[in-house]
Each structure stands twice: as structure tokens, then as C-alpha cells.
Batch of 2 targets.
Target 1
Amino acid sequence: MSLLDRILTVRSRVGPPRQLKVTREGVFYGLFTLGVGAAAVNTGNNLLYLVLGLQLFTIIISGVLSEWALTGLELASLGARDGRAGDETSWLLCLRKRAGRIPSYSLELFAPDGPAQGARAGILRLAPGAEQTVELRFTPSRRGRFVARRLVLSTRFPFGLFEKSRELHVAQEIFVYPRRGPTMPPEDFPRVQEGARPTLRAGRGPELLALRAWVPGDGLGQMHWRKSAQAGSWVVATREHEQAPTVELRVDLRAQPDPTDLARLEALLERAAGASEHALDRGLCVKLHLGEARVDGQADKAGRRRVLRALAAAEPELGSRSGRSSPCRWPGGWPRTPRRSRRSAPWPAAARCRRWRAWSSSAAWRSRWPSATGPLPGWASGSPWPWPAPAWCCSCSSPRT
């Protein structure tokens, strides 16, 4: 049990078991009751006292019947459909009345938070020992992976003067896919027939892999009729499975805690969702890279759900675009991890490096660092070096510092 589940359990045990709210009709009824009571006290009329007693009894019996309507109810989740931001989806729940002798009337389920915030569903009557399936329909506003943990069950039975409610705890994971962004032009995607490679595995494909005798359970679509006619017995054709071409997508999750940068990342995820679905609709495979993670999806329902759920659960890596340390890139362009020099050497010792002298005498350094001036880098021309000096200049192991 997680910490949040424990907090909700303690809250349900310590906090008030029911929440009561007076409706608009209840306010008018209460003011009318106070008026009748004031008139009965001032006039001493027994008939007004009788009317006041009936009104007060109505308030009491309203509280008792609404409490019976909320007693003995259990709620279980039957699963939620994966939704898309901006599109309507649904969440199925099962409400069961396990105790009591009086049916529950005029029940309403309400989602106070989460992606289904504001969704409502009503139940007219629930008999003791019966159960009913309830569908909460909602339209999520943003993508993500959410866990709904509580719902509110309320009733205005019997007179609608008060609304009594209680919290029911239920855990359900809900995935909301990103909006489907603009897809790539059709000519940018390969066709299924192009690039398909054999796998030497049985499956569904146009090529014949092997022939075998018929066994009970083989369908008519697997029969090889010509060979069966030649052999005089039933022969089944085994087809070869072909691997479809793969579309590779990469999304950089690094972003700054800035609304503009986060909106840019959301737009990238929407474009990735549109490109993934377009490729899967054409029967292609998708290889999705989200930061350091990789997700492979085939052109089937499970592969589509795997790719879209990964896009829905992707979290931005805040503060890593400028704060993440990257490998040191040298003038020639190859990445290298700086090493610490074990022996000290004077600054002009880097001039003994042949590669460094050859590169510094060319114009490559000027195109890579326009802020540097002079025909040679700063250590040779006398001007200050405009970038931090590494410990080793290249693979010839000449000490830089």
C-alpha cells in the first residue's frame, strides 16, 4: 500500500463519514419552517404548532432515508479505456449494494479530481444484493498517465432538500494519449512491400515456407489444393512471416521549466503520436526513442497501445538541456572524455602536438569559434583563450596543461 493510499484510508476513518449540503429547495424550506415556527410562538395557535412539527419531522425523515440509501454500497472498477486528449472516453464501474433491506434511490457518481474531473453518472434504483454497471464519460484535457483513487457518491433522496454524499476509494490507472499531430507526407514513408525481409518463421505472408500433412484443427485457408490433388491426401501450406519495414522516431525529452519550452515538447510528442499512428496504419513497425528509453511497436493492437502509452507517460527531463554534461568534442569533431594529466607541463607544451599545430594553422578553428581572433588560437597569438582548455588535446597524448 502506497503512502497516498494510507493517507486516504486514515482520512476515511478519522474524517466525517458523510458530507451534507443544503440545496436551493432546502434553503427555501428551512426559511418557511422558521417562519411557521415564529408565527406559532407569537400567536400560540395549535394548528401552526402541528404544521411546524410535520415540517421538522420531514427534515428528520429525509436524513434517515438518505442515510439508508448510502449504506452498504461497494464500488469496483471494471477498467477504463485509453483516451486521447480532447476526445471523449469512458470508465466502467460496478456499484453493488451488499447490505440493507431498503433499495437505494436517486444515486449519483461524481469524479472530484483526476482526468475524469467533473464526470457524472446517475443510478435511479439499486435493490439490495443487486449490482449495476455505471459508465463515466469524460473528455480529458491533457495527456498523461493518471491514477484515479476516489469517487463521490451522493443522493438527494427523498425530497431533494439536502444532498448527502460519501467518498468511495477505488484505484484505476488511466492513460491519456497525446493529440494526433500532423503526419508526414505519404511519400516519406516506405511501403509495406518495400524492405520486407524474410524471417524463416511460420506466419502470415505471401511466400511458401513448407508443406505438411493435414492435422485436426487446420483451417481451409491453409490448404494447398494443388498438392492435395496430386498427393491424394490433404496437404497444408505453411507461409513465411515477413518483417515489415521499420520507422524510427526520436523525441528529445530534455526541456527547461519554462511554459514555452514545455509547450514545444508537447508539440513534439503530438507530432510523434501522429507519425506513429500513420506508420502503424500503413502496416509498418515503429521504433520509438524517448530520451534513454526505447519502445518497439508492431502493426497490431498491442503494439499500437504500447507506443501510445509510452508517449502518454513520457515526462520532461527538466533542467537538463543546459545542465547535462556532454562528452568533450574536439576540433576534429570526435567525442572524447577528458583525462587528467599525471604530470604537469608548461602551457607552450601543446605546441609540440602535431595535430594541434596542423589544426590551429588552418581556418577550421575560426569557423568553429568565431569569437577567437588572430591567425592562431589564444595561447599562440597572445589573446585570452575564449573556451576552457582540456587536459589532453588529442590522441597523441601531448599534455595541454
Note: DSSP finds ten helices and 19 strands in the chain.
Target 2
Amino acid sequence: MVLTGTLHGSETEFISEHPELHHYTSWLGLKGIFESGTIWATHYSGLNDSTEGYLLRNVLVEPLSEWLRDNLPRSKVRNRIDYPLSDASGKPSFEVRERARELINLMYDRIIEHPGRLSAETAWSDPLITSFCNHTADSEYERAHGLLSQWRGYAAEGGYCIVFDTESLAAALCKELDTYNFLHATLGGVIYLDDQKTVKQELKEILSFFASPLGVKRHKEPDDFLTSPLAQLTYAAVRIKHRAFKEEREVRLSLTPVTAKMVRDNSPGTFPNLPIKPIQLRQIRGRWVNYIPLFAGQDFTKLVRRVIVGPAESVNKSHWRARQILGSKIEISRSETPFVK
């Protein structure tokens, strides 16, 4: 769902289908979250999937090549085409595929932030992400005691699972959007590459982005950025995920804060008259990565249904540590999953 300052029909439907979302973290993560009353949205290059944000490059090549093969003959550049559009089998030619790769790389260079940049204000579009697991389709055991694969990732030092109330979380996000200037914010499930039907539909919606520089006639674009092909490219880049992570059933909060560069590069009134959310930097695996804290100044405890203490050598010790941080307002339960080191 695309979030604005007000919840609409699609948002309430998502909430009713997914009443709670699980966020797994370490002891230090739990401590930091509740002591600060915030949760961080981090640049996708800081996540644990090395293909994060870049799968779209490869996924787009085939459908864009086919689109170029069919549309270049009626484009402005048709008189400058001195190479075959199809090979002997009718598939896009090598030259067309190379043209598709060039356009995709151009899109990434202009729209999607480079992980190596140290400046927090240089990108046009800098998607920042917070991840959750959706256990709606899992058994009651996973909802109550957590997912084993997630515990394996967080239980070495005693992990925890924060179970968020989705309706309260969405309301807090709306308040955040009313307070600071964001280009877009979405909350929804990621698209895994084995779901070809959904992937193809997602790509179909964004291919028209490439029509403009080629002069291909198309329907008039909406004025609203949220529904433009440019936005769809940004959404797709951070929604498509490697199939190896499918077990997580990830629900992803993706936000693009308006930056000082956006304000400078556009005419007055382009963006709402709201404060810019400061983008901060931290090191992850030796690389500087952008992030923003969310929900500062709100009552964070109202967003949380309960906290699950994960498998540990001493679950009682983990439970006691959590209670010292959480106080008596939040329910704390113990996972019955056996400890796996």
C-alpha cells in the first residue's frame, strides 16, 4: 500500500489481512529500539541480501528488450537505427539487448542512490527500508514462537522478536508523513522472483517510463508522482527480492525522504511545506549507509503487541534483560523453539 497522511481503503484492507508484523532483532537492537523509541529505515545496500535493489537490472533486460524491439520502429530515433531489431528466431537482437542494458543503467545512475556515495543529499531517489516478517499464512506456532530460520540469524547472542500491531504502526507512519517531507512511502509484501505472474505485472506498469526519451507515443502521464512510471521504477527496485529469502514472507516499509537537493532542483511549491527529515549515516560492514529513525516523539510502546524472547542458552536471563528495558507495559513471552547455536 502507498501511504499518505490518511489511511484509505487499500490500506485498511492490508491491515485487516495482516493484523500484526514481526520484526526480529538482537539484544542490542531491542535495547536501542526501546531506549530511543525509534526504529530505523536503512538504505537497501545495508541489508543482508547482496542483490538487494539490483535484481531489477537483470529482470528488466528481457521485457525491455522485447518492448524496444516492438516500439523502436515508431520512435523518434527510428532513422538512426542501423542494426537489426530481431535475430533469426524473432527474439530481440544482441544490439537491442545492449540498448536495453544501457537504458537500465542510465535509470539506476539517475534515480537510485549509489551505495558508495558518502553524501546523504546527493541522490534523487534514496529508498530507505525497514523489514518485517508476515506470519499470517504460517501456523499458530510460528506466530506465537517465531520462525526458526530467523532465530538462527539472531539467537546466537539471544534474539528477540518485536510483534507490531499493524494498524497502530500504519497510523504512526501517517503521523510521520504529516510531520516530515517524503516523496513516497509504501508498506507491503516484497515480490519474490519465483512469482513470475506478479513480476511481469510489476514490470508492465513501469516499461512506459522508457517511452519518453525515445519519443514513443503514450497516454498522458498523471501529474501525481505517486502514480507515475518513475515512481513505479523506484518501488519495483526495492520490492523485487531473491527467491532464496521467500520463507521470511517479508513485508517491507520503504520510504524516500525529500532531500535538500530535490528542493533546490525543483520550482517552489513542488513539495509540501514540511521540514526535511535529516538523513543520517552509519557504518555497516565497513560501508557508510544512509538511514533515518522513525517515530521519535511518539509513544512507541503503543505500536507493540508483545515481544517474544528467542531461543537462548538462558531464556530466563534474556527475559529478565528484556523486562528491564520494556517495563511492565508490554507483554513478554518465551519462544518454545529449542536453542540452535
Note: The chain has twelve helices and twelve strands.
